[in-house]
Amino acid sequence: MLSKNERDSLLKLARDTIYARLYSQSLPGYKPVSSQVSEPRGAFVTLRKQGSLRGCIGYVEAIKPLWQTVQEMAIASAFQDPRFPPLSKKEYDDIDIEISVMSPVKKISSVDEIEVGTHGIIIKKGYQQGLLLPQVATEEGWDRETFLQHTCYKAGLVGECWKEKGTELSVFSAEVFSEKNRK
Known about the structure:
Strand order of the largest sheet: 2-1-3-8
CATH class of the largest domain: Alpha Beta
CATH topology of the largest domain: Glycoprotein, Type 4 Pilin
Shape: globular
Helix content: 25-40%
Number of strands: 8
Strand content: 25-35%
Number of domains: 2
Largest sheet: 4 strands, antiparallel
Structural class: alpha+beta
């Protein structure tokens, strides 16, 4: 678990990074507040505007130091999520930033291993893959089957793909924190 200071520093980094990119400034420097934020970790940065999704992109795998992943995913969520136009200066004050720090991914052999509200799901079949974060099922009020179905849809597959032979299922958990919970 990250400390309050670590969480706050990562949220500030995400917000300052988005601001810098909006105003064509150099990205903010970051002095890691602990060794934990310098460890390679996967993370997603989610932007919400008035409670609605406004962008969400991340790495599941631990590729880079956590602080660097947060900085890069803040930019990607604000300006590169293909579902939304790039964030505008006018929207900046209206967004809330949420960070999900990922656990390692674990392949599972049975959907019974999925704990709704605790696990996120990755469904892979052939070259198609879909991922939904753990908090999505809780926010939407989904049961396990509905969560699986929507993860299939996210992969561009039919809703029952999770039952088909050759479909790989994996789970992960996430430590989720946001500006909204901090205020």
